[in-house]
Each structure stands twice: as structure tokens, then as C-alpha cells.
């Protein structure tokens, strides 16, 4: 019987099965940020176990609130910084070199097909876009991962999601994943792996695949996996060209991690996206979705473009195409946070930053900041934000604030009108 990608990764990384169904896996990458890792560090220090299993496999970044906004966040940053120095963690990214973890680490080439990846962050599922098993974990698992380079999982069953057809103009990966979450529900994939397949995914860039995988957790999914292919090889080529004689050789090696044709799935879902419209959330759960046309006219106070979901160069490009030569509504605050310094620089080189600024946007440094309501764009009570992020929970971007999730294109159109708007008329 064939195996899924997740089953192949579990089989190849298995070091122990202490109880039936509980599998201890060897880890290829342990990623760390300044919100959750300092708690693990403090506990390891208190237990007299201030060690790391392999400094080259640990990647750390200060990204959630950076530059620090107060004493608390400065202390969190300091703890991570000192720990990284103490253990000679070379892949540590501090102010000036830092960006949102799930955008920065893939951009640095740290993720490869077949890898096991953990982080004390729920959107670690993003890295499944490379054909990896990547999962968010709690503090205890993170501590064990840092110390021993292993993590215990119950082997998840896989739900295969076939995205068929082709995405129409003005409709993007974000609309596709919001639609899928709307169909599955916020618990529809709990403790399951979501495997994204089909012609829509095959045609996507790595950036778009990361947008898909990023939101697997919003349907409860442990990881959101895409099949490694030539798109994956091309993205990683600058980092792997010394390891393989040709791109074809890399593709052959990566292909071992693709699910077999006769793999067994718990469920197979088929969605034809050829007639999909731009999608927007309307409530406090990411499965509460409607076509943008139905919510058109809903006034917003702020438009936020950024985050690990949609703060990448292709996102900025799409929004800039709409904003070019236009001004955002006077009633709206537009905030752009390019997700990494490289994205920021590339966007500057392409004139995208100018377009945003001329339209009336404020451009912040790369950080999570506003996405989780901590800095650089926190909402006031009763305010409404159109956002390219992944969570619309009550108060997510500020106490008493409301968030509508949408694509970069829809948010750009919304910024122009000051009300939720269909981006297709601007394309
Ligand atoms: C701070 C961190 C633990 C959190 C997460 O795990 O997702 C954050 O990234 C978020 O998106 O809410
Ligand atoms: S950008 Fe938002 S969702 Fe992504 S890791 Fe940061 S806080 Fe979490």
C-alpha cells in the first residue's frame, strides 16, 4: 500500500514508539521566536539543562514585537538574544535582519522536502508548503526539541484537498484557503494533515502555497502539505545547487517525498475553484466567510497588509497593481508591513513601496506587530480592520476590534474605497 507524504516523513524520522500510535521523530529544524522560546529557555535553565541538541539545526528570530515596544518585550528579546549567543546559534536574526518567522526562514532556504520542523508557534504549518511535516508545539515539546532534537506526535491521518480548475482573475491563494476553511469548518481538520493537491496548487508559486499551508491550522490541521515539484526546486535552487548536479536530479530526490498514487486518505475533498470569487470573513472565526460582493460597502477604519500569510513580495505586487496612481480613502489608515527585509528591499527596488506611500499607506519595518494586536497598528475599541492576516478572533488586533480577513487584492481595493470592495473592478 502506498504512503502519504506525512507517512513517509514519519517512517523515515522514527526513533521510538513508546506507546502504540505515539511516534518520536528526529527533528531537522527547531525554529524559535521571542514570545514562546524564552519560557522554554527559563525552564531549561531552572532545571540545569541549558543546552541545545545541535546549534546548526536551531533557527531563531525576534519577530513578533520588534523593535521592542516596552520593557516586557525588550526582556523577551534579550532572553532569546543571549541564549542564541551563549549556544552559538548562527542563524539568529535580530533587529535589522529580522522578519516574520514563517516568511524569513523559508526565504533563507532552511526548509526542504521531507523535513520535520517544529516551533512554538501555531502557524508553523506554513512550511508544509515545501513537502515537509511542520507543526506548532507547546512549551514542553519545544524544550525537548531544543534539548534532544526529537518530538513525539500521534501520527496524523491525512485529508486530501483537491483544488481543481483554475483560479479566475482577481482570485488568489488566500481566497482559496478561506473558501476551503469555510467548507471544512474551524475544527474540520483537527489533528489531521491537510494535503493540498490538484491543478490549482500545481500552478501556484511557493509564496502562494505558503499562504495555503499557513492557514491549515485555522481548520485545526496539524500541518498543511503541498507536493514538492519543479516549483519547489526552482525556489530552493540557490541553496541546493551545490548538492545536486542538476535541477532534474533535485526533482528526482524531492519526488521521493510526494504521496504515492495509491496512498490511503481519511477523506478526499474535491473543490472546483474555476468560479470562485474573492472571499472575506465576516465574524470572529475564520470559517465565517462570504463572497466579497456580499460584504461590499462594510466600512473599515484600517487596512493592514502583511504577516506570515500575505506579507510576501507577490502579495505586495498584486496590491500595488491596484493602488498604483490611486489614493486610499481619507477615512482609512493603510499599514503595510513587508514580512522580511529582503521583501522590503525588493519592493523598494520595484517601486512598490513608492506606490504604497503615494497612495497614503504607512510602511513599517518587518514584524508581526499588528497581526496579533501588539504593535504598529493596534485597533481601538469598536474599530474595524481589513487584513491580509490569518486570524479574525475577537480582539485579535486590539481589544474590542473587529477583523475581516481577505486577500491583498481585496484589501487594496478596500483601502481605496474605505469599505470592503471587490478587487476585480480594479484589475
Ligand atoms: C505568539 C504565538 C505563540 C502565536 C501563535 O502561536 O500563533 C502568534 O504567532 C499568533 O499568530 O497568534
Ligand atoms: S504574522 Fe501573525 S500569525 Fe504569523 S506568526 Fe506573526 S503573529 Fe502569528
Tell me the major beta sheet.
5 strands, parallel
CATH fold call of the largest domain: Aconitase, domain 3
Output the structural class. Answer: alpha/beta
Amount of beta strand? 15-25%
CATH superfamily of the largest domain: Aconitase, domain 3
Radius of gyration (CA) equals: 21 Å
Topology:
Blueprint: H1 5-13, E1 14-19, E2 22-26, E3 29-33, H2 37-46, E4 58-61, H3 71-86, E5 92-93, H4 101-107, E6 116-119, E7 133-136, H5 139-148, E8 150-154, E9 157-164, H6 173-184, E10 192-197, H7 199-202, H8 206-214, E11 223-226, H9 230-240, H10 247-255, E12 267-272, E13 279-281, E14 289-291, H11 292-295, E15 302-306, H12 307-310, H13 313-323, E16 333-337, H14 341-349, H15 352-359, E17 361-363, E18 384-387, E19 402-405, H16 408-417
Parallel strand pairs: 3-4, 3-6, 4-5, 6-7, 9-10, 9-12, 10-11, 15-16, 15-18, 16-17, 18-19
Antiparallel strand pairs: 1-2, 2-8, 13-14
3-isopropylmalic acid binds next to loops.
Would you summarize the structure shown here?
The protein is α/β, with parallel strands linked by helices. It contains 16 helices and 19 strands.
Descriptive account of the structure:
- The longest helix is centred in the first third of the chain and has 16 residues, at 71-86.
- Strand 3 (29-33), helix 2 (37-46) and strand 4 (58-61) form a beta-alpha-beta unit.
- 33% of the residues lie in helices and 20% in strands.
- The chain has 427 residues and is α/β, with parallel strands linked by helices.
- The mean pLDDT is 98.
- It has three domains: 5-154, Aconitase, domain 3 (2-Layer Sandwich), CATH 3.30.499; 157-272, Aconitase, Domain 2 (3-Layer(aba) Sandwich), CATH 3.40.1060; 282-426, Aconitase, domain 3 (2-Layer Sandwich), CATH 3.30.499.
- The strands form five sheets. Strands 5-4-3-6-7 form a five-stranded parallel beta sheet.
- Residues 35-36, 64, 121-123, 136, 372 line the site of 3-isopropylmalic acid.
- Pfam families: Aconitase.
- Its cofactor is [4Fe-4S] cluster.
- InterPro entries: Acnase/IPM_dHydase_lsu_aba_1/3, Acoase/IPM_deHydtase_lsu_aba, Aconitase_4Fe-4S_BS, Aconitase_4Fe-4S_dom, HAcnase/IPMdehydase_lsu_prok, Homoacnase/IPMdehydase_lsu, IPM_dehydratase_rel_enz, IPMI_cat.
Amino acid at each position: 500500500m502506498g504512503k502519504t507524504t506525512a507517512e513517509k516523513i514519519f517512517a523515515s524520522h522514527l526513533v521510538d514508539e513508546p506507546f502504540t500510535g505515539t511516534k518520536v521523530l528526529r527533528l531537522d529544524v527547531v525554529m524559535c521566536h521571542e514570545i514562546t522560546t524564552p519560557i522554554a529557555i527559563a525552564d531549561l535553565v531552572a532545571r540545569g539543562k541549558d543546552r541545545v541538541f545541535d546549534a546548526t539545526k536551531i533557527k531563531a528570530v525576534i519577530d513578533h514585537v520588534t523593535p521592542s515596544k516596552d520593557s516586557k518585550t525588550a526582556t523577551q528579546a534579550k532572553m532569546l538574544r543571549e541564549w542564541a549567543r551563549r549556544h552559538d546559534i548562527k542563524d539568529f536574526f535580530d533587529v535589522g535582519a529580522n522578519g516574520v518567522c514563517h516568511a524569513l526562514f523559508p526565504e533563507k532556504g532552511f526548509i526542504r522536502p521531507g523535513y520535520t520542523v517544529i516551533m512554538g508557534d501555531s502557524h508553523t504549518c506554513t512550511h508544509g508548503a515545501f513537502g515537509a511535516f511542520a507543526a506548532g508545539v507547546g512549551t514542553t515539546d519545544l524544550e525537548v526539541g531544543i534539548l534532544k532534537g526529537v518530538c513525539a506526535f500521534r501520527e496524523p491521518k491525512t485529508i486530501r484537498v483537491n483544488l481543481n480548475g483554475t483560479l479566475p482573475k482577481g482570485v488568489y491563494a488566500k481566497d482559496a484557503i478561506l473558501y476551503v476553511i469555510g467548507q471544512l469548518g474551524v475544527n474540520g481538520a483537527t489533528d489531521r494533515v491537510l494535503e493540498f493537491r490538484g491543478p490549482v496548487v500545481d500552478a501556484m508559486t511557493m509564496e502562494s502555497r505558503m499562504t495555503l499551508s499557513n492557514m491549515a491550522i485555522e481548520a485545526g490541521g496539524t500541518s498543511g502539505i503541498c507536493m514538492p515539484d519543479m516549483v519547489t526546486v526552482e525556489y530552493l535552487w540557490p541553496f541546493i545547487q551545490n548538492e545536486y548536479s542538476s535541477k532534474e536530479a533535485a526533482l528526482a530526490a524531492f519526488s521521493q517525498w510526494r504521496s504515492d498514487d495509491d496512498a490511503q486518505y481519511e477523506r478526499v475533498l474535491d473543490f472546483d475553484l474555476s468560479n470562485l470569487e474573492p472571499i472575506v470573513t465576516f465574524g470572529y472565526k475564520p470559517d465565517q466567510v462570504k463572497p466579497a460582493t456580499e460584504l461590499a460597502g462594510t466600512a473599515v477604519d484600517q487596512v493592514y497588509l502583511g504577516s506570515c500569510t500575505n506579507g510576501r513580495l507577490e502579495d505586495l505586487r498584486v496590491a500595488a497593481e491596484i493602488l498604483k496612481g490611486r489614493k486610499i480613502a481619507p477615512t482609512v489608515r493603510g499599514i503595510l508591513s513587508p514580512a522580511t527585509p529582503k521583501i522590503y528591499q525588493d519592493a523598494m527596488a520595484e517601486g512598490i513601496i513608492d506606490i504604497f506611500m503615494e497612495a497614503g499607506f504607512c510602511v513599517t519595518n518587518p514584524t508581526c506587530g499588528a497581526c496579533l494586536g501588539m504593535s504598529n497598528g493596534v485597533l481601538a475599541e469598536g474599530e474595524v480592520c481589513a487584513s491580509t492576516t490569518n486570524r479574525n478572533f475577537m480582539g485579535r488586533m486590539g481589544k474590542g476590534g473587529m477583523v475581516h480577513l481577505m486577500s491583498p487584492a481585496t484589501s487594496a481595493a478596500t483601502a481605496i474605497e474605505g469599505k470592503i470592495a471587490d478587487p476585480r473592478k480594479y484589475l
